[in-house]
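Input/output pair, single chain:
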Amino acid sequence: MVPLPIRQAWLTELFPGADIVAREISAAPPRAASFAELVRAAVPGPIDVIYAGGGGQSAIAPLLGARFVELDHGQRTVPVSGAEVREDPLVAWPFLPAPVRPYFARTICLHGPESTGKSTLAPALARHFDTLYLPEYGRTYCEAFGLALTMADLLAIGRTHAAMTRSTLRFCNRRLILDTDPLMTAAWAEMLFERSDPWFEAFDETANLYLLLDIDMPWVDDGTRFFGDPERRRKFFDCSRDQLDRRGLPYVIISGPPEERFARSVEAIEAAGLA
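Output:
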C-alpha cells in the first residue's frame, strides 16, 4: 500500500485547484453507510456530486444527498481497474499519471571508475529495454566549468544529477538507466579529497540495481579523466565498490570487452527481475 501522504501529494499535483482531503480507511471496503459517514466527517458542507468509477461507490451518493456520475463507463478510456493497478503497476504503466510514475519506476545505475564503458553502455541498454537513460552530469559539468573541482562542485553535480533523475523518472518506460548517480560522485570526493560530505552520506534515492563496471578495459584520456595509472585506478574501483558495500546495495560486477559487458548487463538486469 502506498503511504497516504504520498498519494495525497500526487492528487495535489494533479489537481492544483482542489482541496485534497485524505483519510486512511481499513483494507476491507466499508459498507456504503459507513463510507458515507467517513465522507460526511471529512466534508461537512453540502456535497452536490460524487464522481467515481462505478462499482459499489454509487450507493453512497443518495446517502449524502448527492448525484452520482460514473467516470469512464466500461473502462473504455483506461482499460485497467484500480485493483489491477495495485497488483502490478508496471503492467498499467501507460495509464499512470506522471507524478505517480517515479514511485514505481525501477532504476539501473552504471557505477564504477572512469574509462570503463559506462557512457557507451547506458544508451545501448536504454535501446534494448525501450526506455530512457540519463547521461552522467559530472562530465557535462566538467566540460562547461573545467576540471579544478572543489567539494562544492561535487555537491552541485550530485544534487543536479539527483534532480534530473527525479524528473526523468516521470517519462521513462517502467525503468530508467542511469549513467552514474550521487554515490559515484561520493567516490570522486573520496578520491580527490579523501573525504565526503554529509549530503552524500545521507543520500537515499539509490537504484534498484547497480552494475559495477570493472577496470579490465584500457584507460583512455578524453580530456576529462584523472586516474589513469593502475594503482590509482584500482583504488578508484575499490572506493566505488565500497560505496555500495557499506550501504548494502545490490550490484553485479560487469567485466570483459564491450560486447560482453552489454550481454552480461542485460543478463543481470533480467536476473534481478527488472527487465
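The first strand starts at residue 49 and ends at 52. The mean pLDDT is 92.
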